[in-house]
């Protein structure tokens, strides 16, 4: 015995070999597994056989070889002990063909189910997707797998294969389970449209198909997969779903064979290479299909050959940059990317720690560098993760960039009056390149930095208080040199949305009056509530949950009818029982009210038409967190919003109850229901605002 070595651990398909000699001539060598014949006798030197270890239970086994001469004399070698260690197949795998044998007329089933295929015509090739593959001539070649109950799929199916077509015209079969005069299920590399396709026949129906959207590439490995889960037929190309179709029912079963590379009904022979065929009796997920794509059926077929080293690496230094270029590597499976490594020490070793980039192109610009001499190596990587030897080292002398960019604001114009949404823009340039522009409002960052020219940002001016403000732009380059433009003075002048009847920014900070920022001067009187500096915008009022409130005297604008919006920011410290945010009282009840908590527990809005009507939320608001509550009524529907998202609604018609009762914020005199925590930015409208308007109000202070 010459292979495998004594004590070896074997997986997948392994070559078993032996040397044999005789004074006249060796007639043949029969390999033995645990004393039983392993395959057919080999009658030609060198003596070997491909052993599919997946067909053998995991654990210790003994291999030996028995040689004979023409006279019938026999000799058996000493046994070689090996350990079989194969990973259990995934759930639902009923057949799997790695085509890793490389010779012979049988294709071993790697699922462990023993469904060996018989090869007719197809030739072996070493250029498989993983290891070897079968080459089909497009006219008469196929692999036949005898019918078995497990191959008669019903309500679950996955078909997978790697294909490399040489010709695509007409119909080209990859996998088909035949039935008399038709298909039970099939996967096509080409369906005459031209595109790949999957077809199944359901009980009591005609064939159901789902095609792809584009023809496969000629001379290129492509992974095809199809699934059926009893409700949807799906087709995948290279792990991406390209089409689906809703179909229901059990798949038709048949006693005909499974074919690979053609079929006995119409021929439809495939021309090219097929590898890594899998059949499951369940629908695999997209993630599972993507995993299968990159995992060989036979682990012994895994690609272990690294790419060649990238050639002729050059590095050219410049101002804060080094420009690299190299010649492409080659690989048996294809290069996926390159790894660029950098050091300030000559003769360094490429490691993950000094890898700075993984481009797919054969060039790279290393930017934003301080002045120094830099050394570079480049390696290539393939799909299996094999990494090539490094290129030869190249160096670049980089000079420093100390020149800051120039930047100036281009809009809005100095002295302009702005409202609503405006675009703030700037021009910026640099001797190397501008890395980004940050806009500033009163020297505070306005949104995120813009890293792409032309430089601009959308500014909702309602987030700033009415009055004068200063806009600037700060530009930086990759070396960190900054420049700030001259300031541009603008005046913000916004008005509240139409229909506002009362608005309380609660920014006074002292005293017992909460001023109404609307045109109606419905000022409130503060009882007990204290001022707090940490409002949602500016200051807020803090309520003790036992006796505090703000009282607003009754006024005609507060008597709403068929249009209403109530809004407030709340930050609750306690949520139990009923907690009022605002209530317009009526004798023994309310006209309308917005609650942070309704004892369920969730926020709610209540109005009275003929009886009290509610729209409620779905969950409690968080404690000690600012939450925006809003409620609307438009004469047909009562709606509740939390943080700008509708969370509840109730159909309702009729006018709201008119009452001479006062408006209360933070409690009410009918049931108490005092709020515990902070309240800010209270608004009342006599119309139903849209969701977009509510979302705008959320982010704008009262009077802003």
Topology:
Blueprint: E1 9-10, E2 13-18, E3 26-33, E4 36-37, E5 47-52, E6 59-69, E7 74-76, E8 80-84, E9 93-97, E10 106-107, E11 117-120, E12 123-125, E13 133-137, E14 142-145, E15 157-165, E16 171-179, E17 182-191, E18 197-201, E19 207-211, E20 222-228, E21 232-237, E22 240-246, E23 258-260, E24 271-280, H1 286-293, E25 311-317, E26 321-327, E27 335-343, E28 355-357, E29 363-367, E30 372-382, E31 394-398, E32 406-411, E33 417-418, E34 421-429, E35 434-441, E36 444-445, E37 455-460, E38 467-477, E39 482-484, E40 488-492, E41 500-504, E42 513-514, E43 524-527, E44 530-532, E45 540-544, E46 549-552, E47 564-572, E48 578-586, E49 589-598, E50 604-608, E51 612-616, E52 627-633, E53 637-642, E54 645-651, E55 663-665, E56 676-685, H2 691-698
